[in-house]
Amino acid sequence: MSKVKTPIYLDYQATTPLDPRALKAMQPYLKDRFGNPHSVDHRFGWEAEAAVSVAREQVAAVIGARPEEIIFTSGATESNNLALKGVMQAYGSKRRHLVSVVSEHKCVLESAQAIARWGFELTILPIQPDGLVDPERLADALREDTALVSVMAVNNEIGVMQPLAEIGRITRQRGVLFHSDAAQAFGKVPLDVEAMNIDLMSLSGHKIYGPKGVGALYVRQRPPVRLVPQMDGGGQEAGLRSGTLSPALVVGFGTAARIAMESQDAETRQISQLSRVFRQTLQAAIPDLGINGSLEQRYLGNLNLTFPGINGDLLLAELRDLSMSSGAACASASEGPSYVLEALGLSEELAQSSLRIGIGRFTTADELEYAAGRIIEVVAKLRPAGT
In which residue ranges of the chain is CATH 3.40.640.10 found? Predict the structure, then answer.
């Protein structure tokens, strides 16, 4: 094995490195092409607006949407807030019920709780031991006054892929809107809003090797989805998201989306192979290693592993040369074990013995060989004597 440079980055679910090609595309809009894309009276504005339009097309192409259905935001958190709150406020007293899942991202669950405080009704569905929601149970939860179902595409903590197409079929048959937080899936697994009957989809730039601070919300136009804007201002982005767009961030996001679409198949094969070898190496040396979430319905760039009998924080402390996490970055300030792992049925002790390992575009086989060796070494060191 050749020498690797440490620390090795293995936290691709928290964020991804900015792809140099995305950075190169952004640079002109940070300096010479500095115009406001909403300035319609001169060349500087026209250039910026044209670049935004190209990026809108690039993002839309990844999910089979029309460019005019892409609303740029500051990221998936804003998109999720706009989708859930905007839909429920638009329905008002006509439909008062929202359905989501216990393992959703914090910003979806917190938005849902805010909506419940406004007087709407909320159903939070459990997940099965493999991390997947039961579509039949979801169908049973729908009511005449259900306005929206929100189910994420790929879980940020355990990597499982929810059955979007099946859920979309159910919601379409029942006349209920379907939203999916696809921040962890966009550009990594196939997504088609038409085939999956998805009405709203949240996307993020920094999860696909683009810049931080930019994302998008897909909003179906045929038939149209009504949303109440969550910010007042100049009426940009079809009146749904006021505020001056950053052409540099949007161009970086669009470029990253184009690259992801072009390389998705090859990248999936590469990451899946790296993930399998890494997992099998650990399993051979640590027979009681646990894998959280379905291995079949999973994005393999996300491995959530349990090391029974070992505190995950101690394991991380011993592995300063590996950049991993004990849970979602958005919940890093929270005390206690991961709510997603608890929803899987793990005990508090096992949940606290778990780590999330992210493999991505720039991960190498040598890095994973080194990482596996270090993890095996430290696990042996931390094991109680005789175990």
Answer: 20-258
- CATH topology for 20-258? Aspartate Aminotransferase; domain 2 (3.40.640)
Residues forming a β-bridge with 149? 99, 178
| Residue 140 CB neighbours (<10 A) | 10
- Rounded CA-CA distance 99/133 in Å is 12
Cα separation, 115 vs 318, whole angstroms: 42
Burial code (b: 16+ CB inside 10 Å, e: under 16) for 66-89 equals: beebbbbbbbbbbbbbbbbbbbbb
Of the candidate CATH numbers 3.30.1320.10, 3.90.650.10, 3.90.1150.10, 3.30.300.70, the domain formed by 8-17+263-382 belongs to 3.90.1150.10
Catalytic residue of the set 18, 122, 330, 365: 330
Mean pLDDT by 10-residue block, N- to C-terminus, for the chain (387 residues)?
Answer: 87 98 98 95 96 98 98 98 98 97 98 98 98 98 98 98 98 98 98 98 98 98 97 95 97 98 98 98 98 97 97 94 79 71 96 97 98 98 74
Give me the phi and psi of 382, to 5 degrees please: -90, -10
Of 360, 259, 274, which is closest to residue 16 (Cα–Cα)? 360
Q: What is the pTM of this model?
A: 0.96
> Where do you find CATH 3.90.1150.10 in the chain?
8-17+263-382
Q: Return the closest-CA partner of residue 59 out of 186, 168, 156.
A: 186
Q: Is 107 a residue of the active site?
A: no
